[in-house]
Structures are given as structure tokens and as C-alpha cells.
Amino acid sequence: MGAIIMKKEGLRMKITVWNEFAHEKTDEAVKAIYPDGIHETVAAFLRENGFDVKTATLEMPEHGLTEEVLANTDVLFWWGHMRHGDVQDEIVERVYKRVMEGMGMVVLHSGHASKIFTKLMGTDSGLLKWRESGDKEILWVVDPGHPIVEGIGENIIIEHEETYGEHFIIPEPDELVLISWFSGGEVFRSGCCYKRGKGKIFYFRPGHESFPVYHDKKVQRLLCNAAKWAYTPAPQNILYGHYPVSILDQK
Ligand code: ZN
């Protein structure tokens, strides 16, 4: 019981932050914002908030997502962009299976086009409008009682970001928490909650690699909230399939 309460407080929840870790190696401007990679910046603020955090990247054996790592992950963060196609299908299946078993996921920004998010959505979630323009973005909270926006206030303002615009081909979110407005006129569903199997998934739009979005304190607070929301305590062992004896005779 104690452990579960601790986990709810975020003290012992195990998080793995996965990043393809490509732009930060080849683009000096991106490297200046995220010198150790986006994953290390995200991991650092999660650790500061009491989570037990590891990181994993594309170039590691099995992309750093071995059976053992995933078995010890309560919530998996995912950032990818230009190397979605290099993620092995076998690893995508492994992550998918863990979500079905109850692992949470927080999918960030261009992760909308990743193999795993597309599989979890069941739609062409890579399709949307975009401009790399440095527009202003205002993320408006549209579900003020939702735990993911606790302490956020009415909105998050990001002075410069890449734009995404509707239509975004996703299933209707189970819960829609944030909508973005951009100075160029676009709107976008930016904070979307889903349940798949026993697992919970949160999609969060901001985080283009050339803007310092994950250094923003409000964004950090929201992503800590999202990790807590996506955590599901170990589900009961459930028997599926042929069930030869009456449930009433089982006592
Ligand atoms: Zn981007």
C-alpha cells in the first residue's frame, strides 16, 4: 500500500525517456539548446521532481528498450522525428504489448508520426499541417479540472514554436485537455488523452528541436503531471479466453 501511495506521489514511479537523438548530433543550433540531447533535458526535470528516470536512444542495442527495461518502466516518454523509419518493428511490437499490459506513454511533438503512436491510434496520425516559422503559440486549457493541467493556470504561452495545424488525423481523444492557437491562424488539438488496453497515452504537441520548449517551467510541470496521470498501478492478473468452470463455482 505504501509503495502505491509513493508511486502516486511520483517518488518511485519508473520512467524511461526515449529519444532518437539525431538532430542534437548534427545541428549546432539544436545542440546549443539540448547539449546532451532532448532526452537528458526531459529526464533531468523529471528527476528533480522525484521520479526514478532512465534514458534510452535509437542507437543503443534494441534501441535501449529491452524486455527488461520495459518491464521496469511505468511510463515511457517518446521523442522522434527524422528517424521514425529506423525503429525496428519488433521493438514497436514490444512497446505496444507493454502498453496493453498497463505501461503509460507520453508521446511528444513529432512523435505523432512514430510507428508506435500510429499503431496505438489506428489512424494516419502523421498527417497534419506544419510550418517551421517561429510563430507564437498559446496552449489553452480546455479541461481545467484535469490532473494534467494542475497548477498550469489558463494557458501556456510559448513565444516561438513550429506550428501544427488541423486537421490532425487522430481518433477523437478520450479526454481533450489543451488546444493550441498560433499567430499564423492555425489551431490544433495539443493535449490528447487515450486509453489503449490497460495503458494510458498522453500526446503533447510542443517540443520542436530548434526551440527551447522543454526548458519552460510550465511545460515541465505539465509533463510531470502527465507522467503521474499515465501511471497505472500493476493490474490484476486477468484470465482471458476459454473459462470452463462457472464463475460462481470458483469460490
Ligand atoms: Zn518539429
**Amount of helix:** 25-40%
> Which consecutive residue ranges, at least 5 long each, have pLDDT under 50?
1-5
Number of H/I helices: 8
Bound molecules: zinc ion
C-alpha termini separation:
25 Å
Rounded mean pLDDT score: 94
Number of strands: 9
The structure class reads: alpha/beta
Describe the structure.
The structure is a single chain. The protein has 251 residues and is an alpha/beta fold. It has helices spanning 2-8, 23-26, 28-33, 38-48, 67-71, 89-101, 115-121, 217-230, and strands at 14-19, 52-57, 75-79, 104-108, 129-141, 155-165, 175-182, 187-196, 199-204. Strand 3 (75-79), helix 6 and strand 4 (104-108) form a beta-alpha-beta unit. Helix 6 (89-101) packs across helix 7. It binds zinc ion. Zinc ion (ZN) binds next to loops. Residues 109-110, 162, 208 line the site of zinc ion.
Key traits:
single chain, alpha/beta, 251 residues, binds zinc ion, 28% strand
Task: Map the helices and strands.
Elements: H1 2-8, E1 14-19, H2 23-26, H3 28-33, H4 38-48, E2 52-57, H5 67-71, E3 75-79, H6 89-101, E4 104-108, H7 115-121, E5 129-141, E6 155-165, E7 175-182, E8 187-196, E9 199-204, H8 217-230
Parallel strand pairs: 1-2, 1-3, 3-4, 4-9
Antiparallel strand pairs: 5-6, 5-7, 7-8, 8-9
Helix pairs in contact: 6-7
